[in-house]
Design goal:
- The structure holds three protein chains of three kinds.
- By secondary structure, chain A is α/β, with parallel strands linked by helices.
- Helix content of chain A is 35%, strand content 19%.
- Chain A has ten helices and 15 strands.
- The longest helix of chain A has 17 residues.
- Chain A is globular and about 55 Å long.
- Chain B is an all-alpha fold.
- Helices cover 69% and strands 0% of the residues of chain B.
- In chain B, helix 1 packs antiparallel against helix 13 and helix 7 runs antiparallel to helix 12.
- Classes of the chains: A alpha/beta, B mainly alpha, C mainly alpha.
- Chains B and C meet through helix 5, helix 6, helix 11 and helix 13 of B and helix 4, helix 10, helix 12 and helix 13 of C.
């Protein structure tokens, strides 16, 4: 089976002549583009997957685009087969793989096998020299939004202790923690961030225990990086503490204590893809960004945010939009005391993709 | 009394006694044997009917469902290979349940043994990849995985024999513990730092990865699984060991009284079971993931339990049953997409099949049509 | 250092109270079932289904206690299914339990999808720690009424086993089916009833998970707690009161991991988190023996033979 290069202009131009080769099982109409989306968890998880699913809704609204979605696809060859099934049985021309572990080797292998299908993966892993040209990455650096969370929390805390419930010690989580701390310290030099790792992306009982342990240790603002932040936010609210959200807005869960939250704005990227496809352009291979590209946002400020916190956070957002650097050295590692950030790094520097340390100002260890 | 997991009637040593009327004997055996095919098929039919009602209540068409299962699981070359690939770890995990079940032990720790085996294979690969050629390296990894898995399940088997600890629970606890051990090392000392976003061991180089069976899109794990199934069937039904094992499974006290080395049999069976699961882990690492990481915990062990029960613990029957479940899983994706059903639908179907299947156990021996003119038990 | 120790101890106290309640209910349910001579491994599925039903009903009706009741009924239904199927001849109890676990979990996940997001009214707690100055202590002693219900049920069961006719019947059926039949009791019916009531209790345990602590519904809610509770019963040697104590121990063990991290002990947190499983296994090994028949074990208890 061979696909034409999927672009609407080409399809409309060549519709008559290429109708034969477009007669594939499962495709609805010749002018449709089918986009296949794969989620590692449930679409309604109030977290990571939902952020993608909500943005995909924007994609569905684009005329001529049909979206097929599959959820709870594990990071094993099951995703390989699911993607292949979407290509073969649904005629997908663009695959959006939304979980870290989907890329290597699954997306790469499939991209080599189906050079006419475009694959985009939600993590900054695409390597210009090694990986196929029809594969690509897109990512939004949420840590900038966590920085803003930190700014708002640093001025809303009374105990100067902020708590962070984290899933696994991987680079994106660590950079969120570090950014949160740097944001808090930029307005409140006495602030300390305490982190507890639960060990996996979705463990409600352990997340609740961790949240309680952090509050017991004196933290009065909690935030988290787990798949479903609902538990942490609700525990904080129940104990009268403040909270920041993650992935999507958890404001409705904490009417009294919500400060703000770090939210993805994937729809900017997805709509960009759809627009490119509609106008016949090739999709970019590496689409990353953050505040300066409108890929992330912060949730509307809640009752838990102090007035000065609000002002400082708005200023921070403006600064980030203007590409003001967050990581300005010298900054030290919290375990060894060595300087790990020696200069001012641009916020999108690939250096951050390999972050494996926690900075001074964070209490807790990655291992 | 220890309920025999198999419920199979024990004929004297399974040897066929020569009778004057050989043909009548064949017919009789066919009748009693067909019971073991007809009743499970009946069970699946009933379960499917119930599931169809379930779908109708949800406003979905059962006919669509069946068509999609066919299309996604078996209807074309791509789907069949998808199914076969998915059934490979299921065969091995099911063997992990089936072999001890034949001696009366219900061990459900295949998931843990798979993870431990895969982890062992990855660990062994670390010093080897730079120095040893792939064939030797992979062979050593294979052995490491089998041994690690064998020892893991042997713990449960031994605990049962020596201290009477319920092996179902202990093997399940060992699963959680095994996963914790793997995670600890994979995120700590053994973590490959070039992969910052998914803790895993150092990835295997391309030449080390196990390829596909030539001409297909399915890796060699399937072939090994089938070979093991055949080998174990021969072991359990045609050797002295297998015969002794069956006595242990059928009547524990009689086995003890006869002086059979019960402890050794239990240990060996547990180790065989664990080795199978460990080998499944080896293939997950060497053919699919390329390293040990949290994705090894994929639930194959639990589906394997169901496969083993449906196959009535017969290693050969496990293969087609595993393929059937592989097909349902393979079709799961397209069912989600086309029928707008959540992924849990397949879980419900599986649970239903399992429950109805177990109910059907009670039908054995009730129908005269399956009994010959003279039953030997 | 002293202050840190106090923090961990308070956390363990809080954990013992909070996390133990579902264990308690499931263990008590299983205790009753096993006293009658049957093992029900499907309680993991019952727990999850109970959690989902409780959350859903609480959300739909606005009444959390209605959710608890509904969860109990759902648990009773699964228990009845288990009991009925096991009552058929030639059926393997352990296998049915595993099947019910899969089935219950599948049904719960399937119908529970629309309830992951919304916020359902939760169960209120009684602030026993109001006297304390230490806010941690106050929060640790924020006890849900179900905790006391569980303890009350345990005491009632212990008393009933020893002093009532019903308790005697259950124990006889569990110790010697032949003796029970000779006395005219229907062994199957007693086991069926015990399994059903056991399921009811397990369902309530699930309700606690989703309506009190952690107070949320999603697919990762239970991580083997139902199965640990079954092991717990063996550990407690089939005494309801000891089941409560064991549940408290497990709850405390579950709180160790996060609490240690909060005071700075961060090495090997995976193992602290696996503590409950390791503890269960260690206890099972320690309290078992090949030769000495445990004197408290019900004579007909299938899984031990």
């Amino acid at each position: 089976m061979s696909f034409q290069r999927i672009s609407r202009r080409l399809l409309l131009k060549g519709a008559a002549g290429s109708a034969a080769s477009l007669a594939l099982a499962g495709r609805a109409a010749a002018a449709d583009l089918t986009v296949g989306v794969l989620y590692v968890g449930s679409r309604g998880d109030f977290g990571w997957n939902q952020a993608h699913a909500d943005a995909v809704k924007g994609l569905k609204a684009v005329t001529g685009v049909k979206v097929v979605e599959e959820e709870n696809v594990p990071e094993t060859d099951a995703v390989l087969k699911s993607m292949e099934s979407m290509i073969n049985l649904d005629g997908a021309g663009l695959i959006l793989a939304t979980s870290f572990g989907y890329y290597s080797p699954f997306v790469i292998d499939l991209a080599k096998k189906y050079p006419q299908v475009e694959f985009r993966h939600a993590a900054p892993l695409w390597n210009k020299d090694k990986d196929p040209k029809n594969a690509g990455s897109y990512f939004a650096y949420l840590n900038q939004a966590h920085y803003v969370d930190g700014v708002a929390s640093g001025l809303s805390t009374k105990t100067n202790k902020l708590g962070f419930v984290a899933a696994k010690p991987i680079a994106s989580v660590l950079s969120n923690i570090n950014s949160f701390m740097l944001g808090a310290r930029s307005v409140n030099p006495n602030a300390v961030v305490q982190v507890i790792f639960t060990g996996d992306w979705s463990l409600p009982v352990r997340e609740a225990e961790s949240a309680n342990a952090l509050i017991d240790a004196g933290c009065d603002v909690l935030t988290c990086h787990v798949d479903g932040p609902k538990v942490v936010v609700e525990v904080a609210e129940k104990r009268g503490m403040k909270s920041c959200g993650n992935n999507v807005s958890q404001a409705p869960l904490a009417p009294k204590g919500f400060v703000t939250g770090a939210e993805f704005k994937w729809e900017t990227i997805y709509k960009g893809f759809a627009a490119d496809l509609a106008s016949g352009k090739t999709l970019p291979n590496f689409t990353t960004g953050s505040y300066e590209s409108d890929f992330v946002q912060n949730s509307p400020f809640g009752a838990g945010c102090s007035e000065e916190g609000r002002k400082a956070a708005m200023a921070a957002i403006a600064g980030l939009r203007a590409k003001k650097a967050i990581y300005v050295g010298p900054l030290k590692d919290n375990k060894t005391g060595k300087v790990v950030i020696d200069k001012a790094y641009d916020n999108l520097d690939p250096f951050f993709d390999n972050m494996n340390f926690l900075l001074e100002g964070v209490v807790g260890s990655a291992t | 009394m220890l309920k025999t997991a198999t419920g199979q009637p024990e004929t004297a040593a399974g040897l066929s006694v020569s009778r004057a009327d050989g043909f009548a004997e064949v017919v009789r055996r066919f009748r009693t044997g067909s019971e073991y095919v007809v009743i499970p098929i009946l069970a699946i039919t009933v379960a499917s009917a119930l599931f169809a009602l379930f779908l109708l209540a949800l406003g979905r068409s059962p006919v669509d469902f069946v068509q999609l299962v066919w299309k996604g699981g078996f209807g074309n070359a791509f789907s069949i290979q998808n199914t076969l690939q998915r059934s490979s770890p299921l065969i091995l995990s099911a063997l992990c349940v089936a072999i001890p079940a034949r001696i009366g032990l219900i061990i459900i720790g295949g998931e843990g043994a798979l993870v431990v085996g895969g982890f062992a294979a990855a660990v062994v690969s670390l010093p080897l990849v730079d120095h040893a050629p792939p064939l030797i390296g992979l062979a050593l990894m294979f052995i490491a995985a089998a041994v690690a898995g064998a020892l893991w399940i042997a713990i449960a088997g031994w605990l049962r024999y020596a201290r009477g600890v319920n092996e179902t629970i202990s093997s399940l606890l060992l699963t959680y513990i095994g996963v914790a051990i793997m995670n600890f090392f994979v995120e700590g000392v053994l973590r490959d730092m070039t992969n910052p976003n998914k803790p895993s061991t150092r990835p295997l180089p391309h030449e080390y990865m196990i390829g596909k069976i030539p001409g297909t899109d399915v890796h060699w794990g399937l072939a090994v699984g089938i070979l093991l199934a055949v080998a174990l069937q021969i072991l359990m039904s045609r050797t002295t060991f297998g015969f002794a094992a069956r006595i242990v499974g059928g009547n524990y006290r009689a086995a003890l009284a006869q002086g059979l080395p019960v402890g050794r049999i239990i240990l060996v069976c547990s180790m065989i079971a664990g080795a199978c699961a460990g080998i499944a882990g080896f293939f997950e690492v060497a053919a699919i993931q390329g390293s040990a990481n949290a994705s090894l915990v994929a639930g194959y062990g639990f589906t394997g339990i169901l496969v083993a029960f449906l196959a009535r613990f017969n290693p050969i029957v496990i293969v087609p049953v595993a393929v059937m479940f592989g097909g349902i899983d393979a079709a799961g994706g397209i069912i989600q997409r086309r029928m707008a059903l959540p992924d849990a639908t397949v879980l419900v179907l599986r649970g239903l099949i399992f429950v109805v299947l177990l109910i059907s156990e009670t039908l054995y021996g009730r129908f005269a049509i399956f009994k010959g003119p003279e039953t030997r038990t | 250092m002293n202050e840190n120790l106090v923090i961990v101890l308070i956390a363990m106290l809080g954990g013992a109270i909070r996390v133990s309640t579902p264990f308690m209910f499931v263990a008590l349910g299983e205790c009753l079932t096993e006293k009658s001579g049957r093992i029900n491994l499907g309680l993991e599925g019952t727990l999850v289904l109970g959690a989902m039903v409780a959350y859903a009903i609480s959300y739909q009706t606005g009444l959390p206690w209605a959710g608890v009741l509904a969860a109990g009924c759902a648990g009773a239904m699964l228990g009845a299914m288990h009991g009925a199927i096991c009552g058929l001849p030639k059926v393997n109890d352990v296998a049915v339990g595993i099947a019910m676990m899969m089935f219950g979990t599948g049904v719960a996940f399937f119908f529970g999808k629309p309830y992951i997001q919304p916020s359902a009214p939760r169960l209120p707690s009684i602030p026993f720690g109001a006297f304390a100055d230490n806010p941690n202590l106050r929060s640790a002693l924020d006890v849900n009424p179900l905790f006391f219900v569980g303890i009350a049920v345990a005491l009632m069961m212990a008393w009933a086993f020893a002093n009532t006719r019903v308790g005697l019947i259950v124990r006889t059926v569990g110790d010697s089916a032949a003796a029970a039949k000779a006395m005219g009791f229907s062994v199957d019916f007693v086991r069926f009833a015990s399994t059903t009531v056991g399921g009811f209790l397990a369902g309530i345990g699930g309700a606690f998970l989703s309506l009190s602590y952690p107070g949320s519904w999603n697919q990762g809610l239970s991580s083997g707690q139902g199965l640990m509770a079954v092991a717990l019963v063996i550990f407690a040697r089939w005494s309801p009161v000891r089941c409560v104590l064991a549940a408290l121990l497990f709850g405390a063990a579950g709180a160790i991991g996060p609490s240690l991290q909060s005071i700075g002990v961060t090495q090997g947190y995976y193992f602290y988190n696996a503590a409950p499983y390791i503890l269960t296994l260690a206890i099972m090994i320690a309290t078992s023996s090949a030769t000495r028949q445990a004197k408290d074990m019900p004579g007909e208890f299938a899984a031990a033979k």
